[in-house]
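Hi there, hope your week has been kind to you so far. It would help a lot if you went through both lines with me. No rush at all, and the record is pasted right below:

***
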Amino acid sequence: MASRRLESDRFFTRDYRPEVYTQEGIDWVEGTSMRSLLLRHFPALEPALRGVANPFAPWKPARS
């Protein structure tokens, strides 16, 4: 269902353009990955995400 929501959201489809977003906003969206977003908000996850290609896949156990 998430893909259907994205396809019907005008800010990800017809209004995803420089007239609606600033260039800085477009660059931010296109340059951000799920990994970088997680680490921006939860930097302590870095050891668990190190070497993980897909943050939606299982992570390594975090060591304390």
Summary: DSSP finds four helices and no strands in the chain.
